[in-house]
Amino acid sequence: MKIAVLGGDGFVGWPTSLHLSDRGHDVHIVDNLSRRWIDTELGVQSLTPMDSIQERTRIWHQETGRRIHFHLIDLARDYEVLKRWLAEERPDAIVHFAEQRAAPYSMKSDRHKNYTVNNNVSATHNLLNAVVETGLDAHLVHLGTMGVYGYSSVGAAIPEGYLSVGVETLAGETVSQEILYPANPGSIYHMTKCLDQLLFQFYARNDGVRITDLHQGIVWGTHTDQTRRHAQLVNRFDYDGDYGTVLNRFLIQAAIGYPLTVHGTGGQTRAFIHIQDSVRCIELALNNPPRSGERVKIFNQMTETHRVRDLAEMVARIAGAEVAYLPNPRKEAAENDLVVDNEQFMALGLDPITLEAGLLSEVIEVAKKFAYRVDRSRIPAVSAWTRDIAPTVERDPEGRRLKSVS
Ligand code: NAD
Ligand code: USQ
User: Fold this and answer.
1) Can you give the pLDDT at residue 405?
2) 255 or 359: which carries more pLDDT confidence?
3) How much is the average pLDDT of 57-79?
4) Whose CA is nearest to atom 34 of ligand 1?
5) Taking 80 as the threshold, does the pLDDT of residue 235 lie above it?
6) What is residue 393's predicted lDDT score, i.e. its pLDDT?
7) How far away, in angstroms, is 42 Cα from ligand 2 center?
8) What is the domain extent for residue 241?
9) Is 386 an active-site residue?
10) 13-22 vs 53-64: helix axis angle to the nearest 10?
11) What is the spatial order of strands in the sheet that 269-274 belongs to?
12) Which CATH number is 394's domain given?
């Protein structure tokens, strides 16, 4: 298949592009490199030294003989360029990663809220609009989030996208309907993914666009089979307070002897998936497209759930680290249970990689190798969800006073 990977320079997009290219697909990365600019804005860098996208694709060609093409397009702002590109290239499938994906970054200031909404919603709408306008019958696979549901399972497993409800009619009968599971976003970023869902619902029904939405949990790990092949194919690895996600942050913190930064009681339960499984799931989704006219196909892309404090304790045990319980910069439930249905990927043959000491240690080893690149002052999470919360998060676990960057 000819596959466009939008956002293919990012943490999940890069290993996905390599995996699909390795499987023999003709891969075209479209990216505006905004994530690299955000590193510059925040004064941080990936823990791993990342080469330019052109250099990365050159090394991939040198190692495998396969070509991955790169196209510099801003999906949110260059609608006409995107439309022309789709009309000329006519991909069979499109994988859409190209959004601002950090919840803390989206809550940093009014400017960051505006940027996240404008970038994410316009990128998704421009894409759908251009697919219809160019008459393309490409299967669109979007990376959504578990966060569209909120994180409470109210005593029942969270289903894959849709919920059966009984509606009482005027005649007193109960009619059953399937609706999108009620959206309950916890940040501006997560809210944009809820808005994306409505855009997908509309375009699937109105124009017959074939869409799969993957409601993904928190991705952990760094290497996949393909990124291991050459030092310059290494994946990006975020550790800072805005883009680093919880388990990867704990592993890096353990590697450099920084107390593990648990927010609040650590009673938050979240869904997780290893980066290798994430790329496998995307391939499975690409191989199982919906028909035109079918409703949006929704998968829960996660393999296990864990409580944050349990993860911290596990990492502390493996690596001999300390755990710091800190004021929570976010507005979120202090404790929650989470049970999630992921039957569809299991039925398609996913054999999950679950958390185990060996894999966690592998990530700690990568982190130790690049520990010299860590700026410890960028570890604390200082983007507060509200003005009331901000003053409570101004000290880091090492007791230093902090100032939020905006
Ligand atoms: P990332 O920030 O590393 O990658 C996103 C890529 O998209 C970047 O290369 C960026 O430059 C590009 N991009 C952003 N806006 C763009 C635009 N307007 N035009 C063109 N390119 C643009 O993020 P990631 O961690 O790889 O996540 C990829 C997707 O998966 C996101 O949509 C995210 O919401 C979703 N997701 C990620 C995780 C996770 O734990 N990382 C979990 C669940 C879902
Ligand atoms: N947390 C800590 N300590 C830290 C960092 C985070 O206790 O140092 C806590 C947070 O308060 C939160 C939980 O860990 O309760 C998860 O935070 P996170 O930053 O790992 O994940 P989140 O903000 O939800 O976002 C990430 C990705 C996002 C994706 C989402 C999937 O950045 O793109 O959509 O995971 S999910 O969480 O399932 O919605």
Assistant:
1) 41
2) 255
3) 98
4) 101
5) yes
6) 85
7) 18
8) 2-403
9) no
10) 20
11) 218-220, 269-274, 304-307
12) 3.40.50.720
Number of domains in the chain: 1
| Residue pair 252/244 in contact by the 8 Å Cβ criterion | yes
For residue 8 and ligand 1, the question of a CB distance below 6 A is answered with no
* Nearest protein CA to atom 19 of ligand 2, as residue: 245
pLDDT in tens, 164-220: 999 999 999 999 999 999 999 999 999 999 999 999 999 999 999 999 999 999 999
Q: How confident is the model at residue 399 (pLDDT cuts 50, 70, 90)?
A: low
Check pocket membership of 83 for ligand 1, CB cut-off 6 A: no
Determine how β-strand 93-96 pairs with β-strand 174-180. unpaired
As a three-state string, the secondary structure of the chain is CEEEEECCCCCCHHHHHHHHHHCCCEEEEEECCHHHHHHHHHCCCCCCCCCCHHHHHHHHHHHHCCCEEEEECCCCCCHHHHHHHHHHHCCCEEEECCCCCCHHHHCCCHHHHHHHHHHHHHHHHHHHHHHHHCCCCCEEEEEEEHHHHCCCCCCCCECCCEEEEEEECCCCCEEEEEEECCCCCCCHHHHHHHHHHHHHHHHHHHHCCCEEEEEECEEECCCCCCHHHCHHHCCCCCCCCCCCCHHHHHHHHHHHCCCEEEECCCECEEEEEEHHHHHHHHHHHHHCCCCCCCCCEEEEECCEEEEHHHHHHHHHHHHCCCEEEECCCCCCCCECCCCECCHHHHHCCCCCCCCCHHHHHHHHHHHHHCHHHCCHHHCCCCCCCCCCCHHHHCECCCCCECCCCC
Say if strands 211-216 and 162-168 run parallel, antiparallel, or are unpaired. Answer: unpaired
Show the tokens assigned to 325.
């319980």
* Displacement of CA 171 from its chain's centroid (Å): 45
Task: Note the pLDDT tens digit of each residue in 351-391.
Answer: 999 998 878 988 999 999 999 999 999 999 999 999 999 98
Does ligand 1 lie within 6 Å of residue 75's CB atom?
A: yes
Asked if residue 402 has pLDDT above 80, the reply is no
Respond yes or no: is residue 189 known to be catalytic.
yes
Local confidence band at 398 (pLDDT 50, 70, 90 cut-offs)? confident
Given a cut of 80, is residue 323 above it in pLDDT?
Answer: yes
- Contact present, 157 and 72 (Cβ < 8 Å): no
Quickly tell me which residue has 């809220």 as its tokens: 113
Assess whether 83 carries a catalytic annotation: no
Give the residue-averaged pLDDT of 241-261: 97
Token look-up 């940040």 returns 187
